[in-house]
Write a structure and sequence with these properties.
Layout: E1 3-5, E2 10-12, H1 13-16, E3 22-31, E4 42-49, E5 61-62, E6 76-78, E7 92-97, E8 107-114, H2 117-120, E9 127-136, E10 142-147, E11 157-166, E12 169-179, H3 182-190
Parallel strand pairs: 1-10
Antiparallel strand pairs: 2-12, 3-7, 3-9, 4-5, 4-8, 6-7, 8-11, 9-10, 11-12
Pfam family, one: TerD
Organism: Lusitaniella coriacea LEGE 07157
Family: Belongs to the CAPAB/TerDEXZ family.
Length: about 190
């Protein structure tokens, strides 16, 4: 049974999913029935950070136009852009082979942003049931889940979770931090 995380909670992946080799990170959401005159397009991205908490290079920013990490093993793969978010379950997903992530990558930051939010008059207050979950690729069992419960009425970007190295093991942090300024605000933070 999956462990349900609370905002700010950190857990060792070795303890909750012993032997985990590769993780499927699923992110999902539903859009409230509102009439902004525009469709919602939410996007998942991953920032691959070095020890200095900054992007290692432009190629270490994984999103719908750069689907794989730059390492030869392509240890991190974005599974593609979902333009509508329609349907149940995961709306976008990333596969992380934890065994192959290069040592220079100390942290993976998983974010969701609203495409053209300002121009479309949209924010995360119009989104509900947002979650991030970690599934063991081999066993297909969900190990961790974090459901956002706060109302982000002015935010257009969310840091959902982080997977990071500490004491030679991988850990996960349920972040749930909202930002105004969309994707650019996060790029400014991590560049």
């Amino acid at each position: 049974m999956a462990i349900s995380l609370q905002k700010g909670q950190r857990v060792s992946l070795d303890k909750v999913a012993p032997g985990l080799k590769a993780a499927f990170i699923g992110l999902g959401w539903d859009v409230n029935v509102t009439d902004t005159g525009n469709d919602f397009d939410l996007d998942t991205s991953v920032f691959l950070l070095g020890a200095n908490e900054k992007l290692i290079s432009d190629k270490h920013f994984i999103f719908y136009n750069n689907l794989t990490s730059p390492d030869p093993e392509q240890s991190i793969k974005h599974m593609g852009d979902n333009l509508t978010g329609a349907g149940e379950g995961d709306d976008e997903a990333i596969i992380v082979d934890l065994r192959k992530v290069p040592a220079e990558v100390q942290k993976l930051v998983f974010v969701v942003t609203i495409h053209e939010a300002e121009q479309r008059g949209q924010n995360f207050g119009q989104v509900r049931n947002a979650f991030v979950r970690l599934v063991d690729v081999e066993s297909k069992k969900e190990a961790l889940r974090y459901d956002l419960v706060e109302d982000y009425s002015v935010e257009t970007a969310l840091i959902m979770a982080e997977i990071y190295r500490k004491d030679s093991e991988w850990r996960m942090n349920a972040v749930g931090a909202g930002y105004q300024g969309g994707l650019q605000a996060l790029l400014d933070r991590y560049m």
